[in-house]
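agent> fetching stored inputs for the tryptophanyl-5'AMP docking request
agent> found them:
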Amino acid sequence: MATPAPSKKVILSGIQPTNRLQLGNYLGAIKNWVKLQKDFDCHYMAVDLHAITARQDPQELRNNTYTAIALYIASGVDLEHCSLFVQSHVPQHSQLAWLLNCYGYMGELSRMTQYKDKSSKAGANIPVGLFTYPLLMAADILLYDTHLVPVGDDQKQHLELTRDVAQRLNGLYGDDTFVVPEPYIAPVAARIMDLLNPTTKMSKSAVNENGSLFLTDSPADIEKKFKRAETDSGKEIRFDEENKPGVSNLLSIQSAITGESIAAIEARYVNKMYGHLKVETAEIVKQELAPIQKRTQELLGDKAELERILKTGAEKATAKAEVTLRRLHERIGFILR
Ligand code: TYM
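agent> prediction call returned; pasting tokens
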């Protein structure tokens, strides 16, 4: 008799469906989701509950959520290996977030650099959700007994907090209360930089849109944005993040898309000009995104099918999340319903 295959380890990740997704979301997250999917039991979400920590236009939020899900599928997320769902469809996320609110500490949340950064821009009225956000993220991860969380470098601190909170609860209620997750941060493209200002991270909400390459940008926009990309003084094309952040960013983008090593790419650019690097990077990005954009549009043309996929994903996710939540309720001392 064949020995049963060991059950696969669990992956979970998500992206906020705010504005348009940008190249950093694709290279830092989605592309790695696809790379890892066959070897894991994967859960990928559009985290709409996180999105409302900043004010959203309702119609735009709904459209962005459909688009995010369509982009995941168009990028190669395979429904055979992955559950795709919308965070708000699985109420256990909010429920566990409340419980974790009672175990997370003000001090550790105040140290989150993303909170410091975003709250400094929020004006006088800072939503409480912006502060407690990392505990909602911890709930997302811990609900599924997640082993691995593929994210970009900017989420590392939130992952560390998740691990701390999981270990704290394990100390109180037993080591098997939560699986303590590991981050998966790929060596290349963990932090794609703004094209105009390559010392800051590329983001969905950059002040100048020309610094962000959106996944829905037209070929003409892609060419234009790379042509204008900030390169550094000097002429040499080599990877040096400190002294040549702009050039290094373009080399990372190429490497993350083609899989070619940075050294091999540098070797191709000996005695070439920055202009060559920009034009060729634009070309590589255009070729990568064209089929994804086409497929995304096709998927968005059939909302009923997307909703069917999300319903299946939410049902699967809810079943698993409920088991974890009940386990914690029982250990905390709640009477189970
Ligand atoms: P979000 O929506 O800001 O970003 C989604 C993913 O994209 C990565 N990323 C980048 N990677 C490389 N270079 C960049 N410039 C860049 N910009 C963004 C992010 O690291 C992230 O992996 N809190 C999360 C969403 C979240 C989540 C989760 C993630 C909620 N719950 C549970 C993992 C597991 C966020 O705001 O990501």
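agent> quick read of the result: Residues 215 and 289 are 7 Å apart (CA to CA).
agent> awaiting further instructions
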